[in-house]
Specification:
Strand order of the largest sheet: 2-1-12
Number of domains: 1
CATH topology: L-arginine/glycine Amidinotransferase, Chain A
Structural class: alpha/beta
Distance between the termini: 20 Å
CATH class: Alpha Beta
CATH superfamily: L-arginine/glycine Amidinotransferase, Chain A
Number of helices: 4
Radius of gyration: 17 Å
Length: 245
């Protein structure tokens, strides 16, 4: 795997944002979410950060929690990153649009080329976008419209395959099994790592993932944060500041 701090494969950094007290009330962004156990949510978030840093060897950057941004920990919704380019999204909910400001600055400070969505007719949620290595799959949903998908294709000069549900093209036993992050190694002889929801959260997915050969599984729980829509891919952004060959 390499030692902590070296970064895993093509990824060198991970970005997360702390859990504010305002998320626990269930009134975050006027969403009418169920109340959370704040201490448990913060503990799960801390474990996630620790595994990104210590187990996967990424340099961890954590934005401070902001009480005015109760859904701020879901910062995976705020950007689509490929290579050295970061597309800043335009969340469907106006209450969530200020979340992009801190993420934009952090990515600029890391030296990424930052592109704005721009079009006021577009809505785009970063976790509706999946890059396979060759093409982008964009799930059209309440949060992402057709114009948002077009901007993804235009920004990365790539084919954007539209689906009526995120990750619909993946052959997984259930939608929950897609709640994982795949980190490809760049070092010969190092197996791929899959950061995924643990068996306690998703037992069926755990059984399916164990069938993958030559992949090291790194389980992590986010069962409390899931109540606020915090799937694993929503809770962090992984990126590289290194030149891509």
């Amino acid at each position: 795997m390499g030692t902590p701090g070296e970064g895993l494969g093509r990824c060198s950094h991970a970005l997360i944002r702390g859990v504010p007290e305002s998320l626990a009330s269930g009134e975050g962004a006027g969403a009418g979410l169920p109340a959370l156990d704040l201490a448990k949510a913060q503990r799960e978030h801390g474990v996630l950060g620790g595994k990104l840093r210590q187990r996967l060897g990424l340099q961890l950057l954590e934005l401070p929690p902001e009480e005015s941004l109760p859904l701020g920990p879901l910062l995976g919704d705020t950007a689509v990153i490929q290579g050295d380019t970061a597309l800043i999204t335009r969340p469907w909910s106006p209450a969530r649009r200020p979340e992009v400001d801190g993420v934009r600055k952090a990515l600029q400070d890391l030296g990424l080329r930052v592109v704005e969505t721009g079009d006021e007719n577009a809505t785009l949620d970063g976790t509706d976008v999946l890059f396979t290595g060759r093409e982008f799959f964009v799930g059209l949903s309440k949060w992402t419209n057709h114009r948002g998908a077009e901007i993804v294709a235009d920004t990365f000069r790539a084919m954007a395959v539209l689906t009526d549900h995120p990750y619909a093209s993946l052959t997984l036993p259930d939608d929950a099994a897609a709640d994982c992050l795949f980190l490809r190694p760049g070092v010969p002889g190092v197996p791929p790592f899959l950061l995924h929801r643990g068996g306690g959260d998703l037992p069926n997915s755990q059984e399916a993932l164990q069938k993958l050969s030559e992949v090291t599984l790194v389980p992590v729980s986010c069962s409390e944060l899931e109540k606020a829509g915090g799937g694993l891919s929503s809770l962090c952004l992984v990126l590289s500041t290194r030149p891509h060959s």
